[in-house]
Every structure is written in C-alpha cells, then in structure tokens.
Please model this.
Amino acid sequence: MNPFIEDCRALALSILKPTPKQLEHGLELHRDALVWDAYAFVPSGLPAGAMTRLVSLAEAGADRDEISNCYEEESYLRFLASSEALRNFKKTFDAAGVDCVFQNCGEEGNDIGRLIKRLARQSYLCDKFRDVVARSVFPEDVTAAREAGRHTIYMTTNGVPLPSPIYSVENALYYITVFYQLGVRMMHLTYNRRNLIGDGCAEPADGGLSEFGRAVIVEMNRVGIIPDVAHSGFRTSLEAAQCSKKPVVASHTVAGALSKHYRGKPDEVMREIVRTGGYMGICAIPGYYRGTGKIDSFLDHIEYVAERFGAGHVAIGTDRMAECFNPENFSKLNIPRARPIYEQFWPPAIEPFEETTGMSQSVTWTNWPLFTVGLVQRGFSDNDIRNIIGGNVMRVAQKTLEGCF
Model:
C-alpha cells in the first residue's frame, strides 16, 4: 500500500482505537457492502511536467479559465496516460473500498458552457479508461459495475443549467432534460450565492426559494434529477424540501447543531429533508464538522443525524479527492490566484477554526474503510451501517427515477 495511505490509516486508528474484533468486523462489512460516496471526486494526480506547463500558461498571461481547463485536463486525464498511473488509480480506489462516487461533473453556477466542460472531461475519463472506472446513469449500472469488479461514477453538477437570457420558463427548464440525457442525476439548486432559483448558503438575507425555483424542482421531479441543497441557504433548503414530491438531499453537509458553519443544516431543515425521503450526506472536511477536527468528530455528526432522524436518512458525502499519487505536487503548484468566480464566494466563518494536516489526514478519502469501523464502534447495526455507507444513496437514486422515462 502507498506509504501516504498507510500513514493516514495509522493516524485514524490511533484516534479510534478499535478492538481487534471491531476492526476485523468493520473491514469485512466494508468489503461486503455497497459503498457509495454521496458526493466526492475520483482519485487524481498531476503527471510529470504538468506544473511546468501550468506555470508557463500563467506567465504567458493566460486567463483563469484557460489555466483551470488545463489543470483539469492534466489532473483528471493526462495523468492516467501511463500504465503505472492507471494501476495506482485503481489501487487508490481499492484502498478506499468505494464502489461508486457521486462525482462532481459540472463547475459551480448555471452557465451551460462552464457546466458542460467538466461533464465532458468526466465522461471521457470513463470512456477512455472503461476497464478501470465506469460511468453509471442508472442505479442498476452501479450494481452491475460492482459485480464486475469495477468502480463507477454517478454524475452530479454544481448547478442547474440555464440559458441566458431566459426567454421563457419552458425553454429554460428544457436544459434539465438535456443534462439528464447526458447522464446527470443530481444538481445543486444553488452554490454559495443567490441565483434565479434561490439563495445560497453564503447569502445573509436567506431569501429562500423563488417562484422559478419551484418550477425547477417540479421539473427535476418529473425528469428524474435529485435536488441537492448542500450549498443552499436555510430557507431555500427548507422550501425546496416542502415543494418537492421526491427525495431532496444535502449531499455534503454537517449537522448545524454541532457546528455553526454556514454549510451546516439545522434540525428544522433536516426534518423536512427526511420527510421527502432524502438524506444528509456528512462531509469529511474538518473546518465544517469542527469539534476535534478529526475522525471522531466526523462520526459525531453521522451519529447525531442517525439518532434524531434515523439511520435511513444519513449518508457520507466526503467532498474529498484522493491525492495519493504525488500529493506534494498540489501544495507546490505556485500559480497566481485569480479572483474567484461569483458563485464560489466563501464568507468568513462564524467561529474561526484552524484546520491542521493531521485533522485532514485522519479523514482522508482512502480512510473510508475506517469510517465503517467507526460506525461499528458506535454500536450501529450491520443493516444500519449498510444503509449509511451506500444503501441510502441507492434508495434515493432508485426512488427519484420512479415514473420517469
């Protein structure tokens, strides 16, 4: 196993301190169960020469989008050009024991051009390297890939595609069908900012869902797209759940009662999400779940939601990417930063929190098997654990497509 993966695993085990029996049972259960990350990124890396190419672009005066496009081409596609990289890609996926990733396949916002670029890259990734990772567009595809010993992605976008300008509601809504036909099965209603659908979680006004937003949810229900309120404001999340006739999810969030981070969801919002049959996917970002910042506090959020709303309404959406090929490449990439795009606005934290390397490494993506071990330690039944680590995502994926063409 990769030394970086081993070090992260040893760190998490030193925090959890499972008994030999708990460790053995948790790892066995993890291997046997369907494991579906409710929101994440497939393993990535940078090939030799990538940093030089990126820095050269920056020095030549390339704009932010050109640099971003090159970075994603390098980190998602070109790094797999060698057989060694492909083997490492699979080993990293295998180490995590994740069968399916609800993969971010569209950039933040509603612009169709921006959304479709990342969607194209991820589709090509699966077409080019189909023996390693498959593209699933229906729940049965996920099951079939697992039975064939392949990992798979299920696609989501960080926004609802909308034309500009909008001449009619009907014309605007049609792009939901277009992206469904391209394989997208979940969409963020908002990112952090306000859009035509509603307010994002960074908007202090917390204005809620718009009339157009209600039409969007009705159309998502009809077509077969899961509404995701992970980055939506409290009222937008609440009203989206009240409006929807099918499950609504917060794919990568935290329990607001345990963390005052603006990305968390209060009990009032979670209660409405549960009423739809949806789930809260707890993210593995220390700055969001806080507490000790380590794997124990991450598990606290899962336990909190399960105790109050049932194990059938909590999942794990890590919001993480495995960087186990050459993780130092990412930190050494010294390209001048452009101002973030509008939708990516990150307001100051309500309560400052300093995230350390040790915190992040305790919940690194390849520590997924130890998340299962931690749930065993917390006394969850095997059936509840199976639901939390994948069964709930599968159920919502199936329910969302009921009655759709």
Remarks:
- The beta strands are 36-40, 100-104, 133-136, 151-157, 184-188, 226-228, 250-253, 280-282, 314-316.
